[in-house]
């Protein structure tokens, strides 16, 4: 009926979907949205229709996107124990430490537990990596990304 190829219609729908989802994710203002679509070279009437479509549906799009986000387990509590093997039958003087962690998680209203065991040097490396990741979260670049994700 439109005398247009299937690929053109598919690309148009995908482009419109991308425009609306990204604009809704970022909760951009009316002026920013108008500036974004003005570059595309559409007529003023079509720009007004797209703006109205965005304003009418952005809350619903955000709610759908939040439902599609993966539900990750969250931290509840941690139990730990330090075991040290001081000697064995073959080696009378050895020190073999091991740290055992029991991580309790909340996952969809259910509590699960994961038991992990490691040596102290690996645990120290893990702590350093986590501290480095937390330090990177304080940079302006990461703060901007996190702010845009909300």
UniProtKB/TrEMBL annotation:
InterPro entries: COMM (IPR017920), Commd2 (IPR037354)
Domain of life: Eukaryota
COMM domain ranges (all copies): 74-141
This protein's name: COMD2 protein
């Amino acid at each position: 009926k439109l005398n247009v190829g299937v690929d053109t219609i598919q690309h148009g729908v995908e482009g419109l979907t991308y425009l609306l989802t990204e604009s809704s994710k970022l909760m951009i203002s009316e002026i920013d949205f108008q500036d974004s679509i003005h570059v595309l070279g559409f007529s003023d009437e079509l720009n007004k229709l797209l703006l109205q479509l965005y304003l009418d549906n952005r809350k619903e799009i955000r709610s759908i996107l939040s439902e599609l986000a993966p539900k990750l387990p969250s931290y509840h509590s941690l139990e730990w124990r330090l075991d040290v093997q001081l000697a064995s039958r073959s080696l009378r003087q050895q020190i073999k430490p091991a740290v055992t962690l029991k991580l309790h998680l909340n996952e969809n209203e259910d509590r699960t537990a994961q038991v992990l065991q490691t040596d102290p040097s690996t645990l120290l490396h893990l702590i350093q990596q986590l501290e480095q990741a937390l330090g990177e979260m304080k940079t302006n670049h990461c703060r901007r990304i996190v702010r845009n994700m909300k």
